[in-house]
Amino acid sequence: MTSFPSQARRVRDRELPPVRRLHALRECALHFAPYGFRATWHHLVVSARIPRRLEDDPVSLERAVDELSEGRDVMLAVRLAYEQERRLEKASGRRVPRSWNPPDGYAIAYCPDPERHPTASLATVVRRILGAGAGSDGRCVACGTVNSRPGWACAVCGVQPGGPRTCHAGPDADARWARIWRR
Ligand SMILES: [Zn+2]
Question: Which segments in the chain show pLDDT lower than 50?
């Protein structure tokens, strides 16, 4: 079992062949994927501008892992703050937590269509999602849009309310994903 930090170090290791660094980036995205793996991967490819020929711009892999790490750091900080608060609460005899238990990083804003996901940086979106807390009043946790089609992904940013359980990935999603994955 490999950890996010050790895989992130591999991504940044310029001594390694670019394809191995790409594989390490995929491992990182398996550990931390706020939109689910497919949409998170597509987001990274687009936002870091990872070229088809990695040799053309291997530094793009570092941009991608930097963005992923920043998003993960936001989540870790929120979780740490929650755990500290819980420790204090338990020490003072409070069994039921006062606040919402923030989720860890997988699919906290699941996007069923790999090509439809928020476009802001992962850190910005993760901060927004975790800041929204447990109740979001029928609004999208990522962009705040009121969902006019309950059960469907947000019309603005593609996030599925309720996560991966209920999915409408959109037409040809699997075929489009195969194209993204093969590069
Ligand atoms: Zn949205």
Answer: 1
